[in-house]
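Q: Could you fold this chain for me?
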Amino acid sequence: MNDSRTLATAAFVLLLIALPLSAQCQQTVEVVIQNYRFEPKLVHIKVGDTVKWINKEKRTSHSVVFSAEQRVESERFFPDESWQRRFTVSGRFPYHCGPHPEMTGVVEVGGS
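A: Sure. Below is the predicted structure, expressed as structure tokens.
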């Protein structure tokens, strides 16, 4: 009886240690929008990571459109606003700006 309680306690402690570690492994990578460009244009991340687009223009709004995914599109965001997306599967995700389609970028998501 004592052994099973000790084992359960040890498992619980390991779980408490592992949860924050798994959350720390996920990262947020920033893409700055300035001068009608995404910088960096190509982002490499892992499954579970998040990309955050930050609009640093002075007056212009932008959006992020993933055409290959049935045109998944962010809302338009204005100077000093941002939008973010967490990527849950691996792959190559090209995107462009809705109002400015000449602005392009790619998110490459590798294994976790």
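A (continued): Helices lie at 2-25.
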